[in-house]
Write a structure and sequence with these properties.
This protein is mainly α. Helix content is 42%, strand content 6%. It has two domains: 33 residues; 37 residues, no CATH class. The protein has one helix and two strands, in the order αββ. The longest helix is centred in the N-terminal third of the chain and has 30 residues. It is elongated and about 60 Å long.
């Protein structure tokens, strides 16, 4: 009987730690979420070339944002 109780208690601790870990991960995600930004569009073939654009310009679209360098 004692053995069963110790196994049951260990399982409860694992569940409790999983909940704590999930809450911690959620809070960290919110703390480091990407804020709004605006950058100049340097793509000469783009319709918005030369304009400052950001995620707010594409609220209803699926957008992939790429930051890169051209050497």
């Amino acid at each position: 009987m004692v053995r069963w109780y110790s196994q049951f208690g260990t399982e409860l601790m694992k569940i409790g730690l999983n909940k704590i870990t999930a809450k911690f991960a959620f809070i960290i995600t919110l703390a480091f979420a990407q804020g709004n930004f605006s950058l100049e569009d340097l793509n000469p073939s783009s319709e918005s070339f030369g304009q400052f654009i950001g995620p707010d310009n594409y609220l209803e679209d699926i957008v992939i944002i790429y930051f890169g360098h051209e050497y």
